[in-house]
Amino acid sequence: MKRFKIAVDVMSGDNPPSILVKGSLDIALENKDFDLILVGNENVISKELDKFRNKTDLSNVSIVHTDEVIKMDETPVRACKSKPNSSVMMAAKLVEEKKADAYVSPGNSGATMTASLMHLRRIPGVKRPAIVTTMPNIFRHTVLIDAGANVDITPECILQFSIMGVIYAEKILKISNPRVGLLSIGNEEGKGNELSIKSFELLKNANINFIGNVEGKNINDGSCDVVVCDGFVGNIVLKVSEGVANFLMKFIKKSVQKNLFRRLASLFFLPVFADLKKKVDPKEYGGALLMGTRGITIISHGNSNSFAIKNAIKFALFCVSNDLNKYIADAFDQHDKSLVE
Amino acid sequence: MKRFKIAVDVMSGDNPPSILVKGSLDIALENKDFDLILVGNENVISKELDKFRNKTDLSNVSIVHTDEVIKMDETPVRACKSKPNSSVMMAAKLVEEKKADAYVSPGNSGATMTASLMHLRRIPGVKRPAIVTTMPNIFRHTVLIDAGANVDITPECILQFSIMGVIYAEKILKISNPRVGLLSIGNEEGKGNELSIKSFELLKNANINFIGNVEGKNINDGSCDVVVCDGFVGNIVLKVSEGVANFLMKFIKKSVQKNLFRRLASLFFLPVFADLKKKVDPKEYGGALLMGTRGITIISHGNSNSFAIKNAIKFALFCVSNDLNKYIADAFDQHDKSLVE
Predict the structure, then answer these.
(1) Cα–Cα dist A207/A196, whole Å
(2) In this structure, are residues A143 and A169 in contact, taking their beta carbons and an 8 Å threshold?
(3) Which residues in chain A have Cβ-Cβ distances shorter than 8 Å to B221?
(4) Could you tell me which chain B residue has the CA closest to the CA of A243?
(5) How far is B44 from chain A (nearest CA, A)?
(6) Which among A185, A264, A275 is the nearest to B255, CB-wise?
(7) Mean pLDDT of residues grouped by 10 in chain A (341 residues)?
(8) Nearest CA among A292, A284, A279 for reference residue A324
(9) Rg of chain A (C-alpha set)
(10) pLDDT, tens digit, for every residue of B226-243?
(11) Residue B73: burial class (beta carbons within 10 Å; 0-12, 13-18, 19+)
(12) Using an 8 Å Cβ cutoff, are A313 and A6 in contact?
C-alpha cells in the first residue's frame, strides 16, 4: 500500500501552533502508516516536538520551515500573491510538487482556496472547485455542495457540483445511488430563482439520481443524500445551522438555570447532550473538503483545536486512500464535454 | 377607538374549517372589541358556530359565503385568476373594499400573496411587497425580510425591504433605532454575491442604522435586529432553521430513549422543553406578514391549528391598531423618489 504524506499548516487560524502541532501528533503517533509534514516556524514547531521526542518515535514527522503567515482578515488573493512563502501557500506547493498528497489548513478559508487554485489547479473539465461538507440528519449525513466557494455561478456549475457531490456521497459516506436534491423554495418543478429553475433542467437530464427540488428543511430530515446549491446560499445554510444549534443550546442552558430542580435534572441529562455534541460538532469531522483540484485540501474551521486538527488529518487520509480525485477525473473525462469545458 | 374588522379564510390550509373556526372564535369571544368575518362555506361554518351559539354572544362574528377554495398545490396566479370567488380571494377583496382591515389565510402562500397583489395592490413607491417574519434570538427576536416573496430582485428592492424591516422592528417589536444587517457570507464589505455587494452600497448611504454584512449565524445571536436578503435566500433560511430545530429535538428524543435512566431524567426536563417550544414554535406568532400592500395580510403556516389561527388574528389586530401601513406610506413618500419609483 502506498505511504501517504499529509501536510498541515500549523501557523494559521485562531489557535496557537502548539495546539495545532499537538493535534497533528495525536494522530501521527497513533498511526505510523503515514508521514506528517508540519509547515510553519521551525523553532516554534521543534519546541513542541521536543515535548514528545524522548518519549516516542517521531520518525514519521518532519518540518517544512516558513516564517510567513496569512492572517484571518487578509484579502485572500492579494495575500497569497504577496506571501508566496506563507504557511498555507507552502503547504499547497508541497501537494503540487507531489511531496504531499493532501494538506490541512485551519486558516483564512479564502486564502486556502486561493492557494489550492494557484498551486493545485483544477482537475481537467472542472469549471469551479467547490467546498463540500456534511450536515447531520437523523439517519446519517447529508452532503452539502457548494458550501461557500463560488457565488454568481451558472447552471452548468450546479450540474458539476451535483456530480462531485454524488462521488463524495458514494466514496466517502459509502451511500449507494445517492439521492440528489436541488436546494430551492418549494418542491415542485418551476419553483425557485432563475439559477435554480435553469439548473433543474440540466439535473433532470443528467445521469444522477435526481429527486427534484428540496427545501431547507429537507437538509436535516434524511430525505436526500446530496443537496446542491451555489456557494452564497450554501455558506448561509451552513452558518444558519450553526447559529440555530448554538441558539438552542444557549436557550436550554439559560432555561436550566431558572431553578435548582431543573439544574439537577440537567445533570442526569448530560449524556444526551454529549451524544448531541458528537453528532453536530464540526470538530468531529475536522473540516470541509475543497473538491475539484488536483490534490486534497481540507479547509478546517479557524477555531480548530487539537481534536479538530486530528480529525481533519484523519479525513484527509480517508480521502486520499479512497482515491477520491481519480473518480472525479474519470467522471469529468466521461462527462459531456460541451457541459464541462 | 376605531373598531377593527378581521377576515379569516377558514377553508384553506391543511386543517379542516372546524379547527380554523375554533381558533378564530377563541379570540373573538375573548375580545369583543373587534369584528370577525369568517370567509368560507356558510353551512360548514354555521354548524361550527352552532356549538357556541347557545352559550355565548356571537354578535361580533359574521360569515361571508363562498364555495370555492384554492388548494395547497395549485399554481398561485392561475388559481387566483380562475377562482375569483375562492376564500382567499374573497378575504382579500373584503380588505380592498374596506369591509375588513386585515385578513388571515393559512392556505397556499403563493395564492395568498397573489390575492393581496391583485386586490390590495402596492403602497405607492413600493416596488415589491415582501414577507417579513421574526426569528428568535437569545434576547428577543430578529426581523427577517424577505422571507420568501421575491426572487431575482435588484439592490433597490433590498433597500426597500430594509426600510420596511426597520418599520416592523420599531412599530411591532418596539425596538428603537434597530440595527440592520445585510445577509452575506462574511462580515467585511466586499464579501458576497453581485446582489449583496451592490446592495451594500445602497444600504450604507441610506438613512438607517446599517451595521454592514451579517452571516447566517448572526440571525439568532442577537447581534442585529433586522436581517435583509432576497426571498430565495430568506425562505431557505427560514426552512433550514425549522429543519435544524426539528432535527435537534428528534435527536434528543431518540437519545433519551436509549435507557430508562435518561427517560426518567427527561421527565424532569419537560419544563425546559416547554420553554423552548414557546420560544421557537411558529404557532406562537401565528404567521408572517406581507408588507407593502394597502392592507394587512397575515400568511399563516398551512398546518396552522386553532392556537396558531388565534395568534394570527391577534397579530393582525396588533398590526392594524399600530397603523403599520401609515408608517410605510409615509416612509416611501419621503423616500428618494429615484430609488422607489
Answers:
(1) 18
(2) yes
(3) 243, 246-247
(4) B217
(5) 31
(6) A275
(7) 93 96 96 97 96 88 97 93 98 98 95 96 94 92 96 97 97 97 93 96 97 97 97 97 92 86 82 85 88 96 94 96 94 64 40
(8) A292
(9) 21
(10) 999 999 999 999 999 999
(11) exposed
(12) yes
- Identify which of A8, A4, A6 has the alpha carbon closest to the alpha carbon of residue A88: A8
**CB contact at 8 A, A12 and A87:** yes
Is A151 within 8 Å of B263 (Cβ atoms)? Answer: no
Using DSSP, state whether B207 is helix, strand or coil. Answer: coil
Task: Kindly state the cell numbers that stand for B20.
Answer: 380554523
pLDDT in tens, B124-168: 999 999 999 999 998 899 999 999 999 999 999 999 999 999 999
Q: Which triple of cell numbers denotes residue B125?
A: 413607491
Peptide bond into A35 cis (omega under 30): no
Do B251 and A276 make contact, defined as CB atoms within 8 angstroms? yes
The residue behind cell 472525479 is A328
> CA angle, corner B216, sides to B214 and B221, nearest 5?
80
Provide the shortest C-alpha distance from residue B252 to chain A (in Å): 7
ipTM value for the complex: 0.92
Within 13 A of A57's CA, how many CA atoms are on the CB side? 7
Q: To 10 degrees, what angle do helices B270-280 and A231-256 make? A: 140
Give CA–CA dist B258/B268, Å, rounded: 17
Nearest to A328 by CA among A118, A182, A145: A145
Q: Please, which residues bridge with residue A296 across strands?
A: A102
Give the pairing type, strands A226-228 and A288-291: unpaired
Mean pLDDT, residues B218-226: 96
Q: How far is Cα B13 from Cα B20, in angstroms, rounded to an integer?
A: 9
Please enumerate in sequence order all residues whose Cβ is within 8 A of that of A205, keeping only pairs 6 or more positions apart, or say none: none
The DSSP-derived string for B119-132 is HT-BPTT-SS-EEE
Chain centre distance of CA A245: 19
User: What CA–CA distance (Å, rounded) separates B138 from B114?
Assistant: 35
Contact (CB, 8 A) for B88 and B305: no
- All three cell numbers of A191: 419553483
Helices (H), chain B: 17-28, 42-53, 76-82, 87-96, 109-119, 155-171, 194-204, 231-256, 260-268, 270-280, 306-321, 324-334, 337-340
- Give which of B132, B125, B135, B129 is closest to B116, Cα–Cα: B129
Whole-number Å distance between alpha carbons of A312 and A27: 10
Segment (H or E) for A63? strand A61-65
* Residue found under cell 392556505: B107
Comparing alpha-carbon positions, the chain A residue that sits nearest to B152 is: A193
Does B254 contact A138 at a Cβ distance shorter than 8 Å? yes
What's the length of chain A? 341
